[in-house]
Amino acid sequence: MTEQTTELTFLKSSRKRRIAAFAIDHFVMTFLMVSIVFIALGPNFMDENKMGKMTTTMLAVMLPGFLLYSAKDSIKGISVGKWIMGIMVRDENNQNEIPSFGRLLLRNLFIIIWPVEFIVLATNDQKKRLGDKVAKTVVLKNPNKPTKLPRFLVLIGVGVTFFVFVFFFVGSAMKNSDAYKVAISEIEKNEQIITETGGIKGYGMMPTGNVSISNGQGQAQLEIKILGNTKDVNVSVYLEKEPNGQWKLIEMQK
């Protein structure tokens, strides 16, 4: 009975589980860092005057973000991705022992050369990447992993959180952009739209499209839903901006 328990406890993780855990961790940590950058910039980050601040903020977040990324396994040798996939990091010589924080940090520093790490993991017969070899660690299946339902729910929760954040934050940023404000101003001057809608009473929750600015020059393609007193209409608006100039309406279509 004891031998059977030991064998199950020390079963190595498959490469598929490790790759899936890495993908989840990469998604979570990247999403966290990008969210911090966007929140620091505020919803008007698309404005031209924010471009310099965006670069500075991204650089300020990258270093602590990478250190946080490298420390992702520091809680009992288990990251978010490893928890979901039911695996854990342990000392290769004593598989009951959790490696020290320093060794876990060292192990993940090699993620910066992730293409090499992926090749080594895919071809190594011991299912180890360079970080494991240097830190003398091994990735095992977690015999105490939770049941599939909570792990599946956490995975779904991560995905839902991402899409909700993108939907509301990017939509809010779009509404706060100068391009959107000019588009709304032009829409409210359009007699044909006012007549067709019976008068404009509002706009859809989130516009779609894109706004891009490079070296002071910008292009914007926006799809805006107009809520009318008698009829709702969707309008496609294209705008351009010259360096140091204002946004100008180029085309409007229903």
The secondary-structure class comes to alpha+beta
- Number of spatially distinct domains: 2
Number of DSSP strand runs: 7
Helix content: 40-55%
* Number of contiguous helices: 10
Write the H/E string, N to C: HHHHEHHHEHHHEEEEE
> What does the main sheet amount to?
5 strands, antiparallel
- Show unreliable segments: 1-8
Q: What form results from the Cα inertia axes?
A: elongated
Short description:
The chain has 254 residues and is an alpha+beta fold.
Q: Could you explain the architecture of this structure?
A:
The protein folds into 2 domains: 2-171, no CATH class; 177-253, Roll (Nuclear Transport Factor 2, Chain: A). It contains 10 helices and 7 strands. The protein has helices at residues 2-9, 15-41, 51-70, 80-85, 101-109, 114-123, 130-135, 148-176, 178-187, 191-197, and strands at residues 87-91, 137-141, 200-203, 208-214, 217-228, 233-241, 247-253. Strands 3, 4, 5, 6 and 7 form a 5-stranded antiparallel sheet that branches. It has a two-stranded antiparallel ribbon with strand order 1-2. A hairpin with a 4-residue loop joins strand 5 and strand 6 (233-241). The chain starts with a helix and ends with a strand. Residues 1-8 have low confidence and may be disordered.
Topology:
Layout: H1 2-9, H2 15-41, H3 51-70, H4 80-85, E1 87-91, H5 101-109, H6 114-123, H7 130-135, E2 137-141, H8 148-176, H9 178-187, H10 191-197, E3 200-203, E4 208-214, E5 217-228, E6 233-241, E7 247-253
Antiparallel strand pairs: 1-2, 3-5, 4-5, 5-6, 6-7
